[in-house]
């Protein structure tokens, strides 16, 4: 559209900013909006388009950035009082690649503090509300990014996914949530929660936009020793959704027995069955499999992630980084640490730091942390067998992104264990380092009005096939609904 001048980056940005201004007061998706800077970026892109210099598919696209991803302007708060006034001196690699490709960064989005949460209610700056139903949560921790896309404020946003923080809110809000393979996207400039699990990804209004943005942010980065140099190039594999669906006869899709749990909400069960019927109707082979160690995933995840969080967040002590308590009321250095962290960190972050410190402590390390690492390895082995065994050799695994539709604000805040179980279908993917994508599975729940998310999980570094299958399946589900 920029090349043909049928639209402009400036008009697209103005529309995005007007939508944010009109709707965000009730949703609270954004912590900062960069109106002036966004307009400057948009006009620069239009000037490039006039000169015939636009080559990127994301050029001129308004995009939001989760506020645990650094920009060298504005603030990077992680939705925490601890970093309320922090200004990063550098920009995250993923964000810089978008800027270099001509994307227009319109603002930073709300999140559960330090990306620790599954509902969007743990932000120090107030909860985000689900645009589909303002009485319900948008999911977390990428709550603001999911809500911004669902409300039509932006067509795409960056999020981070440590245990489902892109895919679960995408399902709750009825958008697409794409988590690439661990190592696909540089973590340089992502404020660390759990370094062996964290991965930057995309929330978008379509699989196509998720693929386009994902292709820009992926790639090797010398600033991140865990980043991969595996080639991207999946745009050619995506194609038109209807064309992707026409190739479904060659797909082998696994559905784990564990995904058919009686604990699922009936609407989730119906969405999964509808997807299975759609796949069969277009010739796909459905393979029943087991992930026998998936019942250990929640325990393993919360031990590993909390242990890594305890280590990563130790720097926020009020001396080296972050909010500092009054020196006048702090009698000792230890007292200063305690007061600073008590004032700067919310209850969910404190809970996870204490859990992580406990499982790493002398006498408990082997019983908890070392055991969780062993469980992580066997969980990954379950996935390896589904993808690699000659008897199965599946192309993707289909399961829900959450056992329920979006729940009401405040419904689970006082019951963290029940909240943690919302991640039952997502955390194992991070433990195994696999790519996965949430698509719209239809509507359900009260009055059949709440989005239901379905998740496709792929082989490592096989995002091209995964995105093509996601595009085709979503097209098939839309056709069956109409």
Descriptive account of the structure:
With 482 residues, the protein is α/β, with parallel strands linked by helices. Helix content is 39%, strand content 13%. The chain has helices spanning 9-27, 35-50, 93-100, 143-150, 167-173, 207-217, 235-238, 241-246, 266-281, 297-312, 333-344, 347-359, 365-388, 416-420, 427-432, 463-481, and strands spanning 30-33, 62-66, 104-109, 156-160, 176-179, 200-204, 252-256, 285-289, 396-400, 436-444, 450-458. Strand 2, helix 3 (93-100) and strand 3 form a beta-alpha-beta unit. Helix 1 (9-27) runs antiparallel to helix 2. It is globular. The two termini are 29 Å apart.
State the separation between the terminal residues, measured CA to CA. 29 Å
Task: Count every beta strand, where a strand is a DSSP E run of 2 or more residues.
Answer: 11
Widest sheet: strand order? 1-3-2-4-6-5-10-11-9-7-8
Contiguous low-pLDDT stretches (5 residues minimum) are none
What gyration radius follows from the Cα positions, in whole Å?
21 Å
Largest sheet: 11 strands, mixed
Put simply, the count of helices is 16
The CATH architecture term is: Alpha-Beta Complex
Provide the residue-averaged pLDDT.
94
What is the H level of CATH, i.e. the homologous superfamily?
Answer: Amidase signature (AS) domain
Portion in strands? 5-15%
Helix content: 25-40%
Overall 3D shape: globular
